[in-house]
Every structure is written in C-alpha cells, then in structure tokens.
Amino acid sequence: HDCEARLRHALERGEFLLHYQPKADAMTGRVTGVEALLRWHPAGEAMIGPDRFIPILEETGLIVPVGAWVLREACRQMAAWQLDGMPPISLAVNLSARQFRDAALIDTIAQTLEETGVDPRRLEIELTESMLIDDSDSVQAVLVRLGAMGVRVAIDDFGTGQSSLRYLKRFNVDTLKIDRSFVKDTPDDPEDTAITAAVIALGHGLGLTLVAEGVENQAQVDFLRAKGCDEIQGYLLSRPLDARAFAAWMAACH
Ligand code: G
Ligand code: G
Ligand code: MN
Ligand code: NA
C-alpha cells in the first residue's frame, strides 16, 4: 500500500533518523551505554515511531538495508562523539529476525566497525527471545562469530517472548534486558516483583549482566539496587533523544 511505497524511498530521501536512549550503572549512576532507536520522519509529516513501520520493513525485507543503515549511522555517530571527547560508552543496536537470518549480517557488522573505527567490544546487538528459540546451528554460528569479534549480545524484552531457558545454556549471551512490563509495577505488585527478582538471580547465576528497562521512579531503582540489578534504562534517566540533545545531556550531567 501507500505506506510501503513511501518506505521504499525513505532511505534514499534521508527520512530515517536515530534517537538515543542511555542506560546507567544502577549503583553509581554512571552512563554505561546508549541504545540507538529508529525513527521515520516523512517530508511534511510528524515523526513516526518504529512500532508503526518496522513490521512493514520486516514484511517487505526492507529491514535488511534499513538495518544496515541503522548500524552504520549509529557507529558513525559514536565515532564522532568519541572525537568530540565524550567518555567512552557502549552502543546498543536492535536487530530484527530477518536481519539475523541474513547471510551477510556478520560481514556487514565487521565492515561497519572497520570503516567507522568503533571498538567491537563497545557494540552490543539486541536480539529477542523468538530469534533464539529456533535453536539451530545457524543461530549458534552467528552468535559464535559475534563473540569471536568481541561484539556483545543482549536479549531484549526478556520474559515476554516464547521463553525457553535452554538457549541461555546453549548460546553465549552477555546481557538480559528485563522487559519494562515486569519492571513497571515493582516494588508494589507482588508477582512482578517476584519475577523481576527471580530473573536477576537467574541471570547472575549464569554470569550475565542484568539491565532493567522502563525505569521511571526512585522506588523501582531502590528495589533493583537491593536485588543487585547491574544497569537501569528508562525515562527516569532519560527519554530517547536526538543525537544533538543526547550529546548535550551527556555534557551537562556526566
Ligand atoms: O522507542 P521505541 O518506540 O523506540 O521502540 C519500539 C520498538 O522498536 C522497540 O521494541 C525497539 O526494539 C524497536 N526498534 C527501535 N529501533 C529499531 C531498529 O533500529 N531496528 C529494529 N529491528 N527494531 C528497532
Ligand atoms: O523493546 P525496546 O526495549 O528496544 O523498546 C524501547 C522502547 O521503550 C522505546 O519505545 C522507548 O521509547 C520505550 N521506553 C524506554 N524507556 C521507557 C520508560 O521508562 N517507560 C516507558 N513507558 N517506555 C519506555
Ligand atoms: Mn532494545
Ligand atoms: Na525492550
């Protein structure tokens, strides 16, 4: 339909942009990294969030070139920030299942890192559980190659997918991001509080880094700290900001 036709030209027209949302060490508040989040700004219209157009990019396969652009743009921006003297932080990029199955993925990542000079150990790829549930050798091969490059792997929205704990044992994952639907009503809701505490304990038992998403208030922070959660992300720290606003926020607060 119309939206699809316009998305086909959005890359060449320069209508995509990235917003950046930081995460911080739960104990010290120090910013540890930033997550790149895709936005579409069609000429003469309001900016559109990913929930409304990423499904179309996935259906059409456009997510592969657009995803490659996201990776390159985010790495280019990181390199520019480093030159400007921003303290070194990590960069998280979200990947779709379609990209993850693309045979060229590893080459695209390796080439982008080389071109931009970003340290592979500062790049974190965010995957969702559904991408790992098919526990095939090809999934394993991609994760092994990412690991060999030094690129980190995070499981996004942990606990909301078709969860199987088996993949945590089989695959080398570095980080679990606890979905904000669980974090939201901690520490008041007993079920969400129990789930969040158990996921932190589970992840730590496996030697993983735990990130709580959607942290909006101090009561949540106090609870997460008490449970030993490593990092927090959410509106309390900052909303996603455009590149310029994020750099200003970093300079002012950190
Ligand atoms: O801000 P927010 O509305 O930015 O993001 C909504 C959803 O879109 C999140 O689940 C996020 O993981 C996903 N998303 C944001 N940017 C990208 C991207 O560049 N690629 C993919 N595949 N998903 C993204
Ligand atoms: O699935 P992913 O985690 O990549 O999605 C990020 C999405 O979560 C973005 O749409 C972002 O705007 C949203 N988000 C980030 N922090 C918060 C928060 O503290 N509260 C709420 N309600 N949404 C958040
Ligand atoms: Mn994410
Ligand atoms: Na998430």
From TrEMBL:
<protein>
    <submittedName>
        <fullName>EAL domain-containing protein</fullName>
    </submittedName>
</protein>
<feature type="domain" description="EAL">
    <location>
        <begin position="1"/>
        <end position="254"/>
    </location>
</feature>
